[in-house]
Amino acid sequence: MPDLPSQAGVVIVGGGIVGCSVAYHLARRGVSDVLLLERRQLTCGTTWHAAGLIGQLRATHNLTRLAQYTAALYEGLERETGQATGFRQVGSIAVAASAERLEELKRGVSMARCFGLEVQLLSPAEAKERWPLLSLEGVVGAVYLPKDGRCNPVDTTQALARGARMKGVRIVENVRVTGIETALGRVTGVATEAGAVRADVVVNCAGMWAREVGAWAGVSVPLHAAEHFYIVTEPIAGLPSDLPLLRDADAASYFKEDAGKLLVGWFEPVAKPWGERGIPESCAFEQLPPDLAHIEPLFAAAMRRVPVLESTGVQLFFNGPESFTPDNRYLLGEAPELRGFFVAAGFNSIGIQSAGGAGKVLADWIVDGHPPSDLWDVDIRRCAPFQRNHRYLRDRTVESPGLLYGMHWPFRQAESARGVRRSMVHERLAAAGACFGEVAGYERANWFANQGSTPRYEYSYGRQNWFAQSAAEHRAVREGVGLFDQSSFAKFLLKGPDAVQVLGRICANEVEVPVGRIVYTQWLNERGGIEADLTVTREAEDSYLIVSSCATQTRDFSWLCRSIPPAARAVAVDVSSAYAVLGLMGPGSRELLATLSDADLSGAAFPFGTSRMIDLGYARVRASRITYVGELGYELYIPAEFAPALFDALRAAGAPFGLRLAGYHAMNSLRMEKAYRHWGHDISDEDTPLEAGLGFAIAWDKPGGFRGREALLEQREAGLRRRLVALALECEEPLLYHNEPIWRNGRLVGRTTSGMFGHTLGLPLALGYLANAGDEVTPEWIAAGRYELEVAAERFPARVSLRPFYDPASERVKC
Ligand SMILES: Cc1cc2nc3c(=O)[nH]c(=O)nc-3n(C[C@H](O)[C@H](O)[C@H](O)COP(=O)(O)OP(=O)(O)OC[C@H]3O[C@@H](n4cnc5c(N)ncnc54)[C@H](O)[C@@H]3O)c2cc1C
How many A from CA of 16 to the centre of ligand 1? Predict the structure, then answer.
């Protein structure tokens, strides 16, 4: 066994491309006290057999920037380290074999434009010019990304490792980490076959093993391995060595020139989970048996697209394992369960192209104590604790690999491992025709099918089959009354004599308010960025109910717990599962509620922004006058076991009022008309409340201040360089989703952050940020522009406003 130091600043577990990239970037940030431990040899896990495609267009701006960074890094790594990487910028072509796929590609073109990525639309003939072996059968268009490329994954990993060593990192092979040491919620080191090593920071880059390594320390790392296939042909005469990569997502296939041969790989819709009883210890440079029956239909589809395959022999049938996550996005960041324990794993078959960027931002995160930009899409805090459940992961992994090349439909829902978390009224909603969507395993009614029709999505980029039903739900809320099941909300209690001071520091708004008041507030980081967007209800002198969204439950609770100073007399409890939440919303809601309650519900006795315990039916519930839909309404917090009976009572009492069950799609349409922000889309940890137009929720001068105040003061002084606005197309089509470029007087000035059709306004709506090339964005500058939104490479005139289009003075909410 090699001699290990007894102490290191950072220990990295795993010497695949990701671990080596983290080590390299830590060293570049000046952290040389880094020890990387690899149980066998560098690259022996998944890295050694990767195909080496380096694509750059990802689903978000920041992830695209990371992929762009990766390509630039690999391009220069040989010069820096003397170790070749095989990197070549050959470009890539994606072909579309259906109108829907072409729309997807064209929307991707627009997205790439606002991410600053070079991209060209190609006709089928132009695609063939660049890729002569292509069969154009069924091809209706294509897209060319000239900056995409390829590399040799083993050489690239070795180059990163060499770069890290050159800056003082110690890399030790053939030593297995066997345990994670912790004390008082912090990591303190690792146990290894060669003895213990104390460390301030441990980074879990253990690839397929990362779930098990995390579990040693009670950390959830939800990933599961699946078999992943490609073939390499015999040499093909005349194959150009600079052939672009080719993707035919409709055939689930990709093609890469590989030393005069073709490498053809697949992302099949129904995949094969692997390692169900754990990843074998013996697994190193593992090659799984080729499953010819499994790949035969895939191969047939690939041959139709590239007919030369029919007459070319296959030199290698390759099958290797790779890890996949439940939502097909990797897992990055400090684990919410354990301070100092970082994770970079679950790369869903894009680990080579992601490693450069992921390694860089993780190193920044470790050194600076926070992520350098909004990384929510891949942040490990998006995961619910249950998601490490083995059976759930295995069942979801049947679906995950196929998602990369599947249609990225708007509103697309997972099909596997469903029904995990259900609200207390789930069966009642289902009986009423609910079509459910899933967030972190929670089933939520998105829309309700009319009697006689099936609650199932029929996807498209245009109006989907639920459009009319959802419109009717929307109108019921605007004109009468609607009932939402919002039980998936995250709910926390903060209790104790110091609760008011503790929360006062975390919240930008004033929370030292009379008992019974609800405060809408943001939690900010030191840079003024929005970490959370939620409501806080003072339910007693020393107790607050904090309500946030299902998607951010883990993150927000972790932020809350970590913000309580050790000496403070305040304790936080997650009570999400204890309460159901029903949202009774619409101008008829007060009258309806009054039929079930003797409480004085008048506007004077029970105004907007207050919360009271009331008798309702046979139950006693907390009623809060708050809304996310822009109408008079009540959120009812109901002890879980009372919820079914109360739901029935509300529906029975609601019949004469025309009460309609409403789903999350209607809620989204309603909130967009009111320009209510959505954390994760419109606001994030890199947007400040001032930029987001939430300055009204800042209590600048409250005693004791709040975290982030100084940064906001500076920004207020300097003027805003970007601002969130509401946008509406001036025509009914096309529909907006997000990441559509915003043009002002013919210049690209921003992109949308969320989009939805607004049924009251009758127009596609969006929210988005505008920037003025580094200058201040003033209301005058905004008003003086002529705007267009780009959708699928075409521009459409749009209106822009700093205020909501619907009820800007919120008169309907406050009545
Ligand atoms: C067939 C195939 C084709 C692919 N093609 C591409 C592609 O074209 N482009 C792309 O971007 N990606 C591709 N990928 C995905 C890519 O290979 C992976 O995402 C990437 O290699 C993951 O790197 P990693 O460092 O996270 O994991 P790994 O390479 O598996 O590294 C993890 C390391 O941790 C070590 N380890 C585990 N437990 C311990 C322990 N207890 N102590 C010490 N060490 C430990 C392991 O031995 C291993 O070496 C492909 C994958 C497959 C299977």
Answer: 5
Q: Is the peptide bond before 734 cis (omega within 30 degrees of 0)?
A: yes
In sign, the C-alpha dihedral spanning 191, 197, 200, 201 is negative
- Measured distance CA(495)–CA(450) in Å, rounded: 45
Q: How many other CB atoms sit within 10 Å of the CB of residue 811?
A: 8
Expressed in angstroms and rounded, the spacing between residue 322 Cα and the centre of ligand 1 is: 7
Q: Residue 612 pLDDT more than 90?
A: yes
3-class DSSP state for residue 26? helix
- Could you tell me where the beta strands, DSSP code E, fall in 557-618? 571-574, 579-585, 611-616
Cα separation, 808 vs 760, in Å, equals: 14
Q: What percent of the chain has pLDDT over 90?
A: 98
Among protein residues, the one whose CA lies closest to atom 27 of ligand 1: 207
Extract the tokens encoding 768: 């988005």
Tell the burial category of 486 from Cβ atoms under 10 Å away from its Cβ (0-12, 13-18, 19+): buried
Rounded CA gap, 235 and 230, in Å? 16
Nearest CA to ligand 1 atom 16: 351
Look at residues 579, 527, 522 and name the one whose alpha carbon lies nearest to residue 556.
522
Predicted pLDDT of residue 263 = 98
H or E element at residue 558: helix 553-562
Q: Which residues pair with 339 in a beta bridge?
A: 186
The angle subtended at Cα 490 by Cα 489 and Cα 496, nearest 5°, is 135
Report d(CA 797, CA 795) in Å as an integer.
7
- Cα 624 to middle of ligand 1, angstroms: 49
Residue 761: its pLDDT value, please? Answer: 98
Residue minimizing CA distance to atom 19 of ligand 1 = 351
| pLDDT score of 59 more than 90 | no
* pLDDT category of residue 534 using cuts at 50, 70 and 90: very high
pTM: 0.97
Distance between Cα 654 and ligand 1 center (Å): 56
- The token duo for 234 is 């015999």
Concatenated DSSP letters for 36-80?
A: EE-SSSTTTTTGGG---EE----SSHHHHHHHHHHHHHHHHHHHH
Sequence-distant (6+) residues with CB within 8 A of 324 are 223, 224, 225, 226, 271, 346, 348, 349, 397, 400, 401
Return d(Cα 143, Cα 127) in angstroms, integer. 8
* Most informative mutation of 202, 352, 353, 397 for ligand 1 (most atoms within 8 A of CB): 352
- Ligand 1 centroid to residue 153 C-alpha, Å: 10
Q: Which residues contact 447 (CB under 8 A, 6 or more apart)?
A: 434, 435, 455, 466, 469, 470, 473, 663, 664, 665, 666
Q: What is the pLDDT of residue 114?
A: 87
Residues with CB under 6 A from ligand 1: 13-19, 37-40, 44-47, 49-53, 176-177, 205-209, 213, 228, 230, 265, 320, 322, 345, 347, 349-353
- Residue 157 pLDDT more than 90? yes
